[in-house]
Amino acid sequence: MSNLIECHALGFSYGDDASKTQVLDNIDFSMKPGESVAILGQSGCGKSTLLNLIAGLDTPTSGEVLISNINPCSLTENARTKLRAETFGFVYQFHHLLRDFSALDNVALPLLIRGDGKKDALQRAEQLLTKIGLEHRLQHKPGELSGGERQRVAIARALVAKPACLIADEPTGNLDAYSASEALSLLLELNKERQSSLLIVTHDLAIANKMDRILTLSNLTLK
User: Fold this and answer.
1) So what's the architecture of 5-216 in CATH?
2) CA 58, CA 46: separation in Å to the nearest integer?
3) Which end of the chain has fewer beta carbons closer than 10 Å to its terminal beta carbon, N or C?
4) What torsion do the CA atoms of 156, 182, 96, 212 make, to the nearest 10 degrees?
């Protein structure tokens, strides 16, 4: 089975030679379709930078990332954006929902952006929100939802387009214990149902232990 993601001697730094700061160095990593992987590491060790490089949001200063054997850096910006949209869904510590949009509209947005018809996009968004128990919150805006509900909407938005891989950056870090457990269970359930990969960054070993594989980012590299 071909790898969905590959990193070869991946590195990232910023600043010129006199004040260069190395963030990541010589990282080799691969991930198969359907696999779940946790990346552990302390705050500030470069976990989010690594996710941005994998997703093609940042450009490596050394090495390369391959997504389904394609190097996003070799593509035009439009082609890179299309590859990223088709491959990844994103969930962050903070939900990043559009505050003036309803839960339904927030979840439908990725489908509308890629050109799906409005009726079909709203129908699929409603089906997914209903599945996760938010059918009574369809027209509520983020400010009218609890923290746990907002994160469940964010998870639905990330998965509605059925991406090949869900990238989750500390997705439960801003939630109370009950809401965090609920959000994690939802992530795992929906990801398994859609047979997609899950790459999750966390400092919580209890979360990491639910993944197929655990790696630790420390001293600029991944082991």
Assistant:
1) 3-Layer(aba) Sandwich (3.40)
2) 13
3) N
4) -80
Angle at 168 between CA 201 and CA 125, to 5 degrees: 170
- Look at 191 and 29; give whichever has higher pLDDT: 29
The domain locations on the chain are 5-216
Residue 1's pLDDT is 62
Nearest to 70 by CA among 82, 58, 62, 61: 82
Cα 95 from Cα 172, distance rounded (Å): 10
The tokens of 41 are what? 């590491």
pLDDT digits (tens, 9 = 90+) for 81-105: 889 988 999 888 777 899 999 999 9
Q: What is the pTM of this model?
A: 0.89
* Angle, CA of 25, 28 and 32, to the nearest 5°: 145
Q: Which pair of structure tokens corresponds to residue 144?
A: 């009218």
